[in-house]
Input
Amino acid sequence: MNIETIEIGGLKSALHAMRNPMDSWAKSDTTFDDGVITIGENDMDLSKRLQEAGTEHAKHLRMVMVYADIKAPRYWWNEFDTYRAGVEKVSCSTMHKLMARPLSEDDFEHECMNDEYLKDAIASINSSMEVWRYSHDQDYKKNVWRGIIQALPQSYLQMRTVMMSYAALRNIVKQREGHKLREWKQFIDWCHTLPESWMIFGG
Output
Protein backbone atom coordinates (compact mmCIF):
# COMPACT_ATOMS: atom_id res chain seq x y z
CA MET A 1 0.00 0.00 0.00
CA ASN A 2 1.25 3.48 -0.84
CA ILE A 3 -0.28 6.89 -0.10
CA GLU A 4 0.98 10.10 -1.70
CA THR A 5 -0.43 13.46 -0.61
CA ILE A 6 -1.21 15.68 -3.60
CA GLU A 7 -2.80 18.81 -2.17
CA ILE A 8 -4.39 20.21 0.99
CA GLY A 9 -6.76 23.16 0.91
CA GLY A 10 -9.38 25.11 2.80
CA LEU A 11 -7.62 25.48 6.13
CA LYS A 12 -7.64 29.29 6.09
CA SER A 13 -11.29 29.43 5.04
CA ALA A 14 -12.29 26.81 7.62
CA LEU A 15 -10.70 28.75 10.48
CA HIS A 16 -12.45 31.90 9.31
CA ALA A 17 -15.83 30.16 9.02
CA MET A 18 -15.62 28.53 12.43
CA ARG A 19 -15.91 32.01 13.99
CA ASN A 20 -19.01 32.99 12.01
CA PRO A 21 -21.65 31.77 14.51
CA MET A 22 -20.41 34.13 17.25
CA ASP A 23 -19.03 36.93 15.01
CA SER A 24 -15.72 36.43 16.78
CA TRP A 25 -13.32 37.02 13.88
CA ALA A 26 -11.47 39.69 15.88
CA LYS A 27 -10.30 36.99 18.29
CA SER A 28 -8.59 35.01 15.54
CA ASP A 29 -4.82 34.80 16.08
CA THR A 30 -3.77 32.57 13.18
CA THR A 31 -1.17 34.04 10.81
CA PHE A 32 -0.66 33.38 7.10
CA ASP A 33 2.77 34.31 5.76
CA ASP A 34 3.85 33.26 2.24
CA GLY A 35 1.49 30.31 2.31
CA VAL A 36 2.68 29.14 5.74
CA ILE A 37 -0.13 28.87 8.27
CA THR A 38 0.60 29.23 11.98
CA ILE A 39 -2.51 28.49 14.01
CA GLY A 40 -2.77 30.64 17.12
CA GLU A 41 -3.77 29.49 20.59
CA ASN A 42 -7.20 31.14 20.42
CA ASP A 43 -8.13 29.45 17.16
CA MET A 44 -6.74 26.11 18.27
CA ASP A 45 -8.69 26.30 21.51
CA LEU A 46 -11.95 27.14 19.72
CA SER A 47 -11.45 24.37 17.16
CA LYS A 48 -10.87 21.82 19.91
CA ARG A 49 -13.91 22.97 21.86
CA LEU A 50 -16.08 22.70 18.75
CA GLN A 51 -14.74 19.19 18.11
CA GLU A 52 -15.51 18.14 21.67
CA ALA A 53 -19.04 19.52 21.30
CA GLY A 54 -19.77 17.06 18.49
CA THR A 55 -19.75 16.78 14.72
CA GLU A 56 -22.71 19.16 14.35
CA HIS A 57 -20.58 21.93 15.90
CA ALA A 58 -17.25 21.08 14.24
CA LYS A 59 -18.54 21.90 10.77
CA HIS A 60 -15.30 23.70 9.92
CA LEU A 61 -13.53 20.33 9.65
CA ARG A 62 -15.70 19.52 6.64
CA MET A 63 -14.13 22.49 4.83
CA VAL A 64 -10.53 21.28 5.07
CA MET A 65 -9.86 18.96 2.12
CA VAL A 66 -6.95 16.66 1.35
CA TYR A 67 -6.26 15.04 -2.01
CA ALA A 68 -4.12 11.91 -2.21
CA ASP A 69 -3.18 9.08 -4.54
CA ILE A 70 -3.77 5.80 -2.73
CA LYS A 71 -2.56 2.50 -4.18
CA ALA A 72 -4.14 -0.28 -2.15
CA PRO A 73 -5.36 -3.87 -2.49
CA ARG A 74 -8.95 -4.54 -3.46
CA TYR A 75 -9.76 -6.07 -0.06
CA TRP A 76 -8.86 -2.74 1.60
CA TRP A 77 -10.85 -0.71 -0.93
CA ASN A 78 -13.88 -2.88 -0.12
CA GLU A 79 -13.74 -1.55 3.45
CA PHE A 80 -12.82 2.02 2.50
CA ASP A 81 -15.83 2.22 0.17
CA THR A 82 -17.99 2.26 3.32
CA TYR A 83 -17.08 5.94 3.66
CA ARG A 84 -19.09 8.25 1.42
CA ALA A 85 -19.72 11.45 3.39
CA GLY A 86 -16.90 13.89 2.70
CA VAL A 87 -15.12 11.43 0.40
CA GLU A 88 -14.81 11.32 -3.40
CA LYS A 89 -12.77 8.83 -5.44
CA VAL A 90 -11.60 8.55 -9.04
CA SER A 91 -10.16 5.11 -9.84
CA CYS A 92 -7.72 3.80 -12.37
CA SER A 93 -9.92 1.61 -14.55
CA THR A 94 -9.57 -2.14 -14.17
CA MET A 95 -12.09 -2.53 -16.97
CA HIS A 96 -10.10 -0.48 -19.47
CA LYS A 97 -6.46 -0.93 -18.43
CA LEU A 98 -6.10 -4.36 -16.81
CA MET A 99 -5.31 -6.01 -20.15
CA ALA A 100 -2.73 -3.40 -21.21
CA ARG A 101 0.29 -5.45 -20.05
CA PRO A 102 1.15 -8.73 -18.33
CA LEU A 103 0.80 -8.72 -14.54
CA SER A 104 3.72 -9.16 -12.15
CA GLU A 105 4.11 -9.65 -8.39
CA ASP A 106 4.50 -5.87 -8.03
CA ASP A 107 0.82 -5.52 -8.99
CA PHE A 108 -0.20 -7.29 -5.76
CA GLU A 109 0.07 -6.91 -1.98
CA HIS A 110 1.88 -10.16 -1.31
CA GLU A 111 4.28 -10.01 1.62
CA CYS A 112 2.19 -12.55 3.57
CA MET A 113 0.97 -14.59 0.60
CA ASN A 114 2.27 -17.99 -0.49
CA ASP A 115 4.66 -17.14 -3.33
CA GLU A 116 3.84 -20.22 -5.37
CA TYR A 117 0.12 -19.53 -5.16
CA LEU A 118 0.60 -15.95 -6.35
CA LYS A 119 2.96 -16.99 -9.14
CA ASP A 120 0.49 -19.62 -10.33
CA ALA A 121 -2.37 -17.10 -10.25
CA ILE A 122 -0.36 -14.53 -12.19
CA ALA A 123 0.75 -17.12 -14.75
CA SER A 124 -2.85 -18.26 -15.25
CA ILE A 125 -4.15 -14.71 -15.67
CA ASN A 126 -1.34 -13.73 -18.04
CA SER A 127 -2.00 -16.85 -20.11
CA SER A 128 -5.66 -15.87 -20.39
CA MET A 129 -4.59 -12.36 -21.37
CA GLU A 130 -2.60 -13.81 -24.25
CA VAL A 131 -5.64 -15.75 -25.41
CA TRP A 132 -7.73 -12.56 -25.17
CA ARG A 133 -5.11 -10.51 -27.02
CA TYR A 134 -4.88 -12.77 -30.05
CA SER A 135 -8.49 -13.83 -30.36
CA HIS A 136 -10.65 -12.23 -33.08
CA ASP A 137 -13.95 -13.58 -31.76
CA GLN A 138 -15.46 -10.66 -29.82
CA ASP A 139 -17.96 -12.77 -27.86
CA TYR A 140 -15.18 -15.16 -26.86
CA LYS A 141 -12.94 -12.23 -25.84
CA LYS A 142 -15.71 -10.87 -23.59
CA ASN A 143 -15.99 -14.24 -21.83
CA VAL A 144 -12.21 -14.47 -21.37
CA TRP A 145 -12.09 -10.92 -19.98
CA ARG A 146 -14.94 -11.70 -17.61
CA GLY A 147 -13.11 -14.81 -16.38
CA ILE A 148 -9.96 -12.76 -15.72
CA ILE A 149 -11.89 -10.17 -13.71
CA GLN A 150 -13.52 -12.93 -11.66
CA ALA A 151 -10.19 -14.67 -11.03
CA LEU A 152 -8.28 -11.52 -10.06
CA PRO A 153 -7.01 -11.94 -6.47
CA GLN A 154 -8.23 -9.50 -3.81
CA SER A 155 -4.60 -8.53 -3.24
CA TYR A 156 -4.50 -6.78 -6.64
CA LEU A 157 -3.40 -3.17 -6.16
CA GLN A 158 -5.61 -0.43 -7.55
CA MET A 159 -4.76 3.28 -7.53
CA ARG A 160 -7.40 5.89 -6.81
CA THR A 161 -7.15 9.64 -6.38
CA VAL A 162 -9.18 10.40 -3.28
CA MET A 163 -10.56 13.66 -1.88
CA MET A 164 -11.37 13.59 1.85
CA SER A 165 -12.40 16.21 4.37
CA TYR A 166 -10.72 16.37 7.76
CA ALA A 167 -14.12 15.55 9.26
CA ALA A 168 -14.25 12.34 7.22
CA LEU A 169 -10.68 11.45 8.24
CA ARG A 170 -11.57 12.06 11.89
CA ASN A 171 -14.46 9.61 11.54
CA ILE A 172 -12.31 7.01 9.75
CA VAL A 173 -9.56 7.19 12.38
CA LYS A 174 -12.11 6.79 15.18
CA GLN A 175 -13.62 3.69 13.57
CA ARG A 176 -10.47 1.98 12.24
CA GLU A 177 -7.85 2.60 14.93
CA GLY A 178 -6.60 -0.77 16.14
CA HIS A 179 -8.08 -2.62 13.13
CA LYS A 180 -6.44 -5.96 12.33
CA LEU A 181 -5.72 -5.01 8.70
CA ARG A 182 -2.20 -3.60 8.50
CA GLU A 183 -3.32 -1.23 5.75
CA TRP A 184 -5.50 0.69 8.21
CA LYS A 185 -2.48 1.32 10.43
CA GLN A 186 -0.61 2.62 7.38
CA PHE A 187 -3.54 4.88 6.54
CA ILE A 188 -3.74 6.27 10.09
CA ASP A 189 0.04 6.76 10.19
CA TRP A 190 -0.32 8.81 6.99
CA CYS A 191 -3.04 10.93 8.64
CA HIS A 192 -0.48 11.88 11.31
CA THR A 193 1.71 13.41 8.57
CA LEU A 194 -0.98 15.87 7.45
CA PRO A 195 -0.80 19.56 8.45
CA GLU A 196 -2.54 20.31 11.75
CA SER A 197 -3.30 16.60 12.21
CA TRP A 198 -4.54 17.40 15.74
CA MET A 199 -7.76 18.43 13.98
CA ILE A 200 -8.15 14.80 12.91
CA PHE A 201 -7.00 13.14 16.12
CA GLY A 202 -8.73 15.48 18.53
CA GLY A 203 -6.08 17.18 20.54
